[in-house]
Structure formats: structure tokens, C-alpha cells
Structure prediction request, 350 residues.
Amino acid sequence: MKKLFIHNTLFRICAPMLYGILVYLLILLVNNNLNDLLKIYSNKELYVCLALSYLSMESLRVTIILLANSLERIPRKYRVGIQTLISLSVSLLVVYLGVFSYFKWVEGYSVGWYELRLFFVIFGFTALLYNILYSSNEYLLRENTTQINLEAKLREKVEADFTAFKNDINPELLYESLESILQSLYVDVNDAEDQVDLLASIYRYQLMNRDKELVNLADELNALNNMISLFNFRHNGQLRLISKLESMFDAHVVPGSLLIAVDTIIRNTLLSRESAFSITLYEEDDGYIVMQHRLNDKLILHEESLLAFARIQRVYSFFSDVPFVQVKAYGENYIKFPAVKIAESAAVVS
Prediction:
């Protein structure tokens, strides 16, 4: 309510003053020609117009404030009309009393209909214009408030997704890796030890960076290589990670985002024992980090990994207007991560 223009102190002081001067000039022009203005100009009459302007606008403001609660239950389309009629009536009554008092007690004679008619037309138009401006300002403020609240809710949702994303420990990766380690213990103890080291390094990386918003791309790739190596124990070494991002090591990514993407790809792709499955990382000219692989989706998709992947998309919107993109075309899947770069302690998307 306090943000509406009618409650602004500067507006309440300056607007009636300027409007009162315009009213006085208009009255002079109605009754005389332009050449006679300097001859008939009167400070006293100017002060009367200024006083009437202040009284009119303040009476409109007070009436609107008093009606705000009284008309709250009435539908908005009727409320505006009722408010306009009542405030117009109050304003004209105040103007009439002001003009009548001036002519009666200062000039010493009763005011005529012609003088009243002119004042009523001018200040009636003032009341209508005031109500239009007020209703427009109230509508814009209401819409802006709605949009701000909506944006705040969306931001809270994104922040919640971001927190959930960072705290996601991927329990299936843990259980599957432990099962693979147990199986390797009966075959090759060294393989089991290697898997333990790889699994520990992945979770160590996630735990160390769970409170960070961004991490260096090189660190993320190092953890991603460890994950590929860990998966290869279960997939007979069929997975290949090809990175062409050496020129982008100054870029940053959301911690764990590449790991989640690769985990989602592997869990939802039919992998052949006869041929290798390659995931290629490279840079596009528009600043994207692209993850590319051939499409060979399973008939039944892994829901949990898809939900985690969807969270990546929402989390990246927290940092940039540049969208996180996934494109499937010509038998290939392209996942595009916005490349975030740190410059002068501020995150910017290249």
C-alpha cells in the first residue's frame, strides 16, 4: 500500500502545486485572451487555486484509503466504479466548500453558477484522472508483486533442487560397486582394491564439494574418469571417455553434474559386449560443454537417474539464463552444459 504513488511525499507536495498553477492559468484563459494574462494576474487567486488543488487531491487520497477496506469484499470491476464515484463526489464537495468560502468570506459575495461550473469541470476531471492513475498504479503493483512472489517461489524450488542435487550420494552406485567389489574379492584382490580406491575417490570428491556451488572443470573430469574406470569393472572395459576440453580447464561446472549425466547415460543405454561405447566431451563455439554418445536406449528406463538428470537442468538455471540443452538427432544424443567461467569473483557464462 505504501508503494503507491499517491502516498509518496514528493508527489503530495509537488503535484498539487504544479496542478494548481495549471488550473489558475486555465481559468484565466477561459475568461480572457493570452495578451491579458499579465494584466489580470493575481497572487491571491493563484493561492486559492493552489489551496483547492491541495484540498482536492488530499480528499481523494483520504477517501481512497478509507474505501480500501470497506470495498475489499466487492468484486474489483465494481469496486473501481464505486470508488471513483464516491471520491469524485467528495472531491467536488470539498472544492465547492472551498470556492464558496473564498467568495463569501474574502470577496464578500455569493458564488455564481458559472464560477462553480468551471471549477467543477476542472476538478471533476482531476478526480477522474487521479482515480485512473491510482487504479493503474495499483494494478501494476499487484501484478509485479505476483510476479515477484512467483519468481521467489521458483528460486526457492531451484535452491531446494540445488541442495538436493549436492547432497545426493547416488546410493545405487554405492551398492552396485560394493557388490562388484565383493565378487572381485573371490577372483582378484587387486581388482577389488582398485575398485575400493576408485569408489572412495568419487565419494570423497562429492563430499568435499557438496558445499560448493561451482568446481573447476579439470577436477570434475578427474572424478569422471574415476567413475568410468569404476563402471568398466562391471562392463568389461567397454566404456570410453574421450575428452577434448583441454582449452576449457578454466571453466567451471556444478559439482557432480557431469558424473550424474554419465551415470544416467550408462543406466539407460543398452551396452554391447562386442563393441565399445564412447562418450565424447568437446567445446562448442557458443561456450557449451557438449557430451555426445550414440543412442541405444533401454526399453525400460531408470526413473531415479532420469530425475537426477532433470535436476541438473533446473540447477543450471540457478546460475545462468543460457539454457541446459539436450538434443537427440541422427542416432546421437547431445547434452550441452553451459560453460561457467569465473571472472573477478563473479560467475559468468561464456
Summary: Residues 5-163 form one domain. Residues 216 and 252 are 5 Å apart (CA to CA). The radius of gyration is 36 Å.
